[in-house]
Specification:
There is one protein chain. With about 300 residues, this protein is of the alpha/beta class. The chain has two domains: about 5-225, 3-Layer(aba) Sandwich (Rossmann fold); about 230-295, Alpha-Beta Plaits, CATH 3.30.70. Helix content is about 30%, strand content about 30%. The chain has helices at about 45-50, 75-80, 95-105, 115-120, 140-150, 170-185, 195-200, 220-225, 275-280, 295-310; strands at about 5-15, 20-30, 35-40, 60-65, 70, 80-85, 155-160, 185-190, 205-210, 210-220, 230-235, 250-255, 260-265, 285-295. A six-stranded mixed sheet has the order 6-7-8-3-9-10, with helices on both faces. Strands 2-1-4-5 form a four-stranded antiparallel sheet. A four-stranded antiparallel sheet has the order 12-13-11-14, with no helix packed on it. α6 (about 170-185) links the parallel β7 and β8. α3 (about 95-105) packs parallel to α5 (about 140-150). The longest helix has 16 residues, at about 170-185. GO terms for molecular function: ATP binding; ATP hydrolysis activity. It comes from Gymnodinialimonas ceratoperidinii. InterPro entries: AAA+_ATPase, ABC_transporter-like_ATP-bd, ABC_transporter-like_CS, ABC_transporter_ATP-binding. Keywords: ATP-binding, Nucleotide-binding, Transport.
Length: about 300
């Protein structure tokens, strides 16, 4: 990995009531990287971003951005960060261009209309620059949030659930925007619970649950891990043991012998399903129902937590 632009070291956040939102989180993110942080609701994704951005005060641990400590060198560190929050909170009667100009000014940057025009064109907002925010669609408002976050020329951009509650078409538009920003040299960290979002955009994927980073892996490695699927075969008559012709396969008996469960890799060249069904027929087993089941992220997270607890 190239030199990290963001380093998180044993970051912990414990609230007054004793709730641990972040539990000794450590993370390094390389310059120009796209990292997708996956986790179920309440896993700690937003708290992590908020703490890195200085919105939430950590209980312990350190964060540095571009070599600047976010506590002792807050202004220098924060000037390198752009944040796109989940909530759309914009002044409804203000024009798009003025909203973005104001955000740039908040960071003490001199006026640069050429740069702002570049951003607005990049986000397909230039023709809306003189429109009031209230007249824009939800998708366009999200683009304005990104323009605001980029207005002061940050090197690191946080996108907190950027496609939550948006339709599939807009979600794919957002993916294109993220790729374009990455190509221009911006380091991007996005939180999501959509596995396809991580698959579409990320270089690496991190998994967080219960305030802990469970893993950070290259996308291809994690996608292979999550490519497992189950074929559930209900039998007309239960069996007590697997017949000889079915042994040696990744099969398990469940539900008192009335169900066979076969696990396979969806990305494999051959899944072995056809051969399995042929073998069932050869053994004289009558199938009453068949269904497939993909492990959800929630289930994978629970499994990872159990592995961690057992270690």
């Amino acid at each position: 990995m190239t030199k990290p632009i963001l380093t998180v070291d044993r970051l912990t956040k414990v609230y007054d009531g004793g709730f641990t939102a972040l539990d000794a989180v450590s993370l390094e993110i390389a310059e120009g990287e796209i990292l997708a942080l996956l986790g179920p609701n309440g896993a700690g994704k937003t708290t992590l971003i908020s703490t890195i951005c200085g919105i939430v005060q950590p209980t312990s641990g350190t964060v540095s951005v571009g070599g600047h400590d976010t506590q002792s060198e807050y202004r220098a560190a924060r000037s390198l960060i752009g944040l796109v929050p989940q909530e759309i909170n914009l002044e409804p009667f203000e024009k798009v261009i003025n909203t973005v100009r104001f955000s740039r000014g908040l960071f003490g940057k001199p006026r640069n209309d050429a740069y702002l025009e570049k951003i607005l064109r990049q986000l397909s907002l230039w023709d809306k620059k003189d429109d009031a925010i209230r007249t824009l669609s939800g998708g366009m408002k999200r683009r304005v949030l990104i323009a605001k976050a980029l207005s002061h020329e940050p090197r690191v951009l946080f996108l907190d659930e950027p496609t939550a509650g948006v339709d599939v078409e807009l979600r794919r538009d957002m993916w294109e925007i993220v790729r374009t920003l990455s190509d221009s040299g911006v380091t991007i960290i996005l939180t999501t619970h959509y596995i396809e979002e991580a698959e579409a955009m990320a270089d690496r994927v991190g998994v967080i649950n219960n305030g802990r980073i469970l893993l950070v892996e290259e996308k291809a490695d994690l996608m292979a891990r999550m490519g497992q699927k189950e074929l559930r075969i209900d039998l007309a008559e239960p069996i007590t043991t697997l017949p000889e012709g079915l042994r040696g396969r990744d099969l398990e008996l469940e539900d008192g012998g009335a169900r066979l469960v076969y696990r396979y890799d969806t990305r494999a060249e051959r899944t072995g399903i056809v051969r399995l069904l042929t073998a069932l027929q050869a053994e004289g087993l009558v199938v009453s129902d068949v269904e497939t089941k993909q492990s959800s992220l929630e289930e994978i997270f629970v499994g990872l937590v159990k592995e961690g607890d057992a270690a």
